[in-house]
Amino acid sequence: MALLQPRLTLKVAQRQVLTPGLMQMVSVLALNKLELKEMIDAEMVENPVLEEIDETVPMLDEVAGREERLERSVEETAAPPKDVFDEIDFGSYFQDYLDPGYRTQPEYEESEKPSFENFLSQPTTLSDHLAWQLGALSLDGKLLEAAEFVVGNLDGDGYLAASEEELAAAFCGVPADVAASNGHAAELAAALDVIRRGLELVQSLDPAGVGARDLRQCLGLQIAAQQQEFDHLYGQGSEEIDEEPETQAHRGFQAEAEAKIDERRRAMEVATLIVEHHLPLLQKRDVKDLARATQVTTEEAHAAVEFIRTLDPRPGRLYNREQARLIEPDVYFVKRGGEWVVSMNEEDLPSLRLSQRYRRMLVSADTDKEVKDYVKERFRSALQLMRNIAQRKSTILRTCEVIVRRQQEFFDKGVEGLRPMMIKEVAEEIGVHPSTVSRAVANKYAHTPQGVLELRFFFSEGANGPEGADTPLLVLKRKVRKFIEDEDARHPLTDDQLAAMLQSQGIQLTRRTVAKYREDMQIPSTHQRRKRV
């Protein structure tokens, strides 16, 4: 029988370890200008050795030296005799004694100003919008809590992914798989009932379609909400036309209006049938098949499809929109003397230097050892940060210089002049690892004659063309999209035809490759693009 015993073993292995300085260099290289500024500001707060160079504001060392020179000059120069008359404060004298009426003292008044927080605002989210509607209703406490619980489980599109049983178990805090065995079945059933009522309440709120399980239910909820609103406005049916002589002139207009109302009501009814039973046919955009399946005329099916187009398949996106990103170019591509050059955008970036005051503390004999050790460690951290910032600038500049040399036609002619360029090729040219170039261009933007573009925009694979020339995938996809936009909707182009059109322009691509690029651009197939009338 083998016994467990402690044992020492030696093992030789090689592994790559990143030092703190190297990790900081990697992170600094990946930052854009705005992120770098935030990092420098944070480092200046934590590290007292770092100082910002500002010619308009004197530094502490300069102020201290100026005060020392001033005190020295005062001691050397004899003070002149003081005039007693000059020591009288005539301003306070007139203010205190010669003002005949009410005197306002602004230095002691506190004006009521609105808080700056009142000017700050953030967009309303879907949860905020639904919670505001729930707060305006008179609901039972348990039902309100269940409705808020349902709202909290909606995704960004407004859909509910969790099942009612899962929501009920989480709502009452009892796992669904052990509820029956532990005698919590009654509690779970009560929670399930209130969750269902809360879900129905949420599905009746604005925007219509929230709380749905899938696309079919989402569209169905929106159609039902519009039908209810339509019936509330126009009633269930048309009223009889008055036959009085004075109303005969308006009879034609009334009949036309009622026909439009009936047509709209009929479109909603057919749309309900399509969404509930024939959603796959709707995705194929085959109006004739839809008319045959729903047993209606082609005109009625077409009107129903056009009505469905007005619905929102993602109702939550109306409130859960992504916030606009603040973009500031990191580099400028400008033309000077007929040549394109690279210029770093360092505006608003703090210029750092090491504090002279802490340098004197290191060489002073009166400084304690612990203080010296702390200052040394802060100096080491500050120097490392300044080196990494300089290395970041050098890497970005060298990368952009290669971009300028390789993309001259783009800067002169536009997107059509873009040439294929790989990150690996640029890395070999400047003598760094491809991951370094990848970090140098990540989340960074350049100001060009064609607008502000991401640096990754200039890196693209190529497709072989005539005589070995290459065409960037970006330009290739633009050509495919242009062909499809100009096609006849009744006879859309096939992938074979698109490949033949590209080959006529000297771009050799197979049908499968064209189909892959088309799918990457989320363009439907030929059958789905065909418009049947």
Key terms:
single chain, 533 residues, alpha+beta, 4 domains, two-stranded antiparallel sheet
Provide a short characterization of the protein structure.
The chain contains 22 helices and eight strands. It is of the alpha+beta class and 533 residues long. It has four domains: 183 residues, no CATH class; 78 residues, no CATH class; 89 residues; 68 residues, Orthogonal Bundle (Arc Repressor Mutant, subunit A), CATH 1.10.10.60.
**Mean pLDDT, all residues:** 77
- What's the domain count? 4
Number of helices: 22
Percent strand: 5-15%
Distance between the termini: 84 Å
Provide an overview of this structure:
By secondary structure, the chain is an alpha+beta fold. It folds into four domains: about 20-65 and about 325-460, no CATH class; about 125-205, no CATH class; about 215-240 and about 255-320; about 460-530, Arc Repressor Mutant, subunit A (Orthogonal Bundle). The chain has 22 helices and eight strands. It has helices at about 20-30, 35-45, 60-75, 90-95, 125-135, 140-150, 165-170, 185-205, 215-235, 250-275, 280-285, 285-295, 300-310, 355-365, 370-405, 410-415, 425-430, 435-440, 475-485, 495-505, 510-520, 525-530, and strands at about 50, 330-335, 340-345, 350-355, 445-450, 450-455, 460-465, 470. The strands form three sheets. The chain has a four-stranded mixed beta sheet. Strands 1-4 form a two-stranded antiparallel sheet. It has a two-stranded antiparallel sheet with strand order 7-8. The protein is extended, with a radius of gyration of 37 Å.
